[in-house]
Write a structure and sequence with these properties.
Immunoglobulin-like
Length: 80
Amino acid sequence: MSIKDFKFRPADLTVAPGAKITVTNNDTTTHTMTATKGKAFDTGDIAPGKSATFTAPSKAGGYPYDCTIHPFMTGTLTVK
């Protein structure tokens, strides 16, 4: 998964429970990928040109997320 032009690519991603997800920031500013409900996942700050990896939740379902720095950047991680 990547971030480019202030967009998550792809914005909607489906993974297996417990999958490792790597997010690469191809933008010129820092971003995060953070679950909007609860604390299901959070990459923390990802500097330009850097990557962060997190583990998908073990419980099936839809997990909306955004960039906490730029909240207009949104998507959904689906675990099934």
